[in-house]
UniProtKB/TrEMBL annotation:
<keyword id="KW-0285">Flavoprotein</keyword>
<protein>
    <recommendedName>
        <fullName>L-lysine N6-monooxygenase MbtG</fullName>
        <ecNumber>1.14.13.59</ecNumber>
    </recommendedName>
</protein>
<dbReference type="Pfam" id="PF13434">
    <property type="entry name" value="Lys_Orn_oxgnase"/>
</dbReference>
<feature type="region of interest" description="Disordered">
    <location>
        <begin position="453"/>
        <end position="473"/>
    </location>
</feature>
<keyword id="KW-0560">Oxidoreductase</keyword>
<keyword id="KW-0503">Monooxygenase</keyword>
<comment type="pathway">
    <text>Siderophore biosynthesis.</text>
</comment>
<dbReference type="InterPro" id="IPR025700">
    <property type="entry name" value="Lys/Orn_oxygenase"/>
</dbReference>
<feature type="compositionally biased region" description="Pro residues">
    <location>
        <begin position="456"/>
        <end position="466"/>
    </location>
</feature>
<keyword id="KW-0274">FAD</keyword>
<dbReference type="GO" id="GO:0047091">
    <property type="term" value="F:L-lysine 6-monooxygenase (NADPH) activity"/>
</dbReference>
<keyword id="KW-0521">NADP</keyword>
<comment type="similarity">
    <text>Belongs to the lysine N(6)-hydroxylase/L-ornithine N(5)-oxygenase family.</text>
</comment>
<dbReference type="InterPro" id="IPR036188">
    <property type="entry name" value="FAD/NAD-bd_sf"/>
</dbReference>
Length: 473
């Protein structure tokens, strides 16, 4: 659409949030009682939706219900999960259910309740560009308002002193399989779309699930439970050396605390990059209960003798893939330990290959001249979740904050729901210069590192000063 943007007339806001997923919804909920804060949030989708293709019956969120949008920063907030239950007259049933981990569908419903009642949230608003206006010392945000069909209805522009990017993640498809997803014919789809195509997959002759994480396990279990005994015709493969359980020990979980986040951020860039790949079992492993359910289902199918027609093979990567007919696909596999290769013919493929952070480059293109990057050209992000920008921008007090796109600087907890409220509170305390949400000085029994850095809590914003940019931010 080539229509020029509207004239530059908006009164600057204090905060514009881009994206309304759990991270920015948490920020909006905690910002709501701050009456002096003029905040607005934009989302191009028509409503809040949290991984709708994976809301399988019985699938549970892998963090306790206390990791809602607000509780770990403000247990008295009206936007807590417990208040959601109370509002819907479900507090006693939840009490007697004794469920520390709630169903994924219930978490999605809770978030939609918050999104439906919070002011300042604008769905069907697609942000097109973010720019810095050096003449006014302000950010410009251009957006397109979409109609019910997703078509452009109107253009708009707003101005703001602060921006919070919460654009979330997107399904990841490995390069060897990308052409198959984009071509018609045999169903090859990402697990994010599983429920929409479940009937087609259940009717397929042979189904292959690629990916050894939680979503792969849940999809495999769901297919296994709904295919006849002796005729399962399922193959589950993954790159990891085992279908490994997620690290869920009490001290292991302390990697998802503010203490560890601060420790990780202070490490050098090469050490951080090495840790991110090495800590896969902290966030890419499989819930032990799901693994047990898969084994139970497989074992049940041996009671009458014989073995189920289901193959589980870890340590396998897909080298290449192609269609051998209008109804069949051939995957070329390699076993990484045996250094052997084979071919697998299948009628459908589910890619449980995870999600990756959406690239910030498109939305930040207008800020590129001011943006500081690391040795791998990733945006630098400071300890308070702010993009490291040129001092000519930050000296004005204007900032761009990042939510759930900072794993390379803040570690494994970046996408974890249990840190969302703390991160949102940190952003709001820094942005307002007030201690709106007092944060704990210590959150883990583990002491990470020999050198202790003080203060542990990011202080409230002070008057801006020009300081040299440090490497490794």
């Amino acid at each position: 659409m080539n229509t020029p943007p509207p004239p530059d007339t908006d009164t600057p806001r204090d905060l514009v949030g881009i994206g309304i997923g759990p991270s920015n919804l948490s920020l909006a909920a905690l910002a709501h009682p701050l009456a002096e804060l003029d905040a607005v949030f934009y989302e191009q989708r028509p409503r809040f939706d949290w991984h709708p293709g994976l809301l399988l019956d019985g699938a549970r969120v892998q963090v306790p219900f206390l990791a809602d949008l607000v509780t770990l920063a403000d247990p008295t907030s009206p936007w807590s999960f417990l208040n959601y239950l109370k509002t819907h007259h479900r507090l006693y049933p939840f009490y007697f259910a004794e469920r520390f981990h709630i169903q994924r569908a219930e978490y999605d419903t809770y978030c939609r309740w918050v999104a439906d009642h919070l002011p300042g949230l604008h769905f069907r608003h697609q942000v097109d560009a973010v720019r810095w206006n050096p003449e006014r010392d302000i950010f410009e945000v251009d957006f397109t308002q979409l109609d019910t069909d997703g078509e452009a209805e109107a253009l708009g522009r707003t101005h703001t002193r602060n921006i919070v990017l919460g654009i979330g993640t997107e399904p990841y498809v490995p390069d060897p399989l990308r052409p198959l997803v984009e071509a018609p014919g045999v169903p090859v789809l990402h697990a994010a779309d599983y429920l929409a195509h479940r009937d087609t997959l259940l009717a397929a002759g042979h189904v292959t699930v690629v990916g050894s994480g939680q979503s792969g396990a849940e999809v495999f279990l769901d297919l296994l439970r709904h295919r006849p005994a002796g005729h399962e015709r399922l193959h589950w493969i993954g790159r990891t050396e085992a279908f490994a359980p997620m690290e869920y020990s009490k001290l292991g979980l302390e990697h998802f605390t503010p203490d560890y986040t601060r420790y990780f951020h202070a490490l050098t860039e090469p050490v951080r990059d090495r840790l991110v790949s090495a800590q896969w079992q902290l966030h890419k492993g499989i819930d032990a209960g799901t693994l047990a359910a898969i084994h139970d289902e497989l074992y049940r199918r041996t009671l009458d003798g014989g073995w189920p027609d289901a193959v589980l093979t870890p340590g396998v990567r897909v080298r290449t893939a192609g269609r051998i007919s209008t109804t069949r696909i051939e995957l070329h596999l390699e076993h990484t330990q045996q250094n052997t290769r084979s071919r697998l013919t299948t009628d459908a493929v589910v890619l449980a290959t995870g999600h990756r952070e959406r690239p910030l480059d498109r939305i930040l293109a207008g800020l590129d001249p001011y943006l500081r990057r690391d040795s791998r050209e990733r945006p630098r992000i400071d300890e308070r979740f702010r993009l490291v920008l040129d001092p000519s921008v930050t000296a004005t007090g204007c900032q761009v904050y990042v939510q759930n796109a900072e794993r390379h600087t803040h570690g494994v907890g970046a996408p974890d729901l249990g840190l969302a409220a703390w991160r949102s509170a940190t952003v709001l305390n820094t942005l307002t210069g007030k201690d709106n949400y007092p944060l704990p000085t210590r959150t883990a029994f583990t002491t990470f590192g020999l050198e202790q850095r003080q203060p542990q809590i990011p202080p409230a914003r002070r008057p801006p000063t020009l300081t040299p940019l440090r490497d490794g931010i």
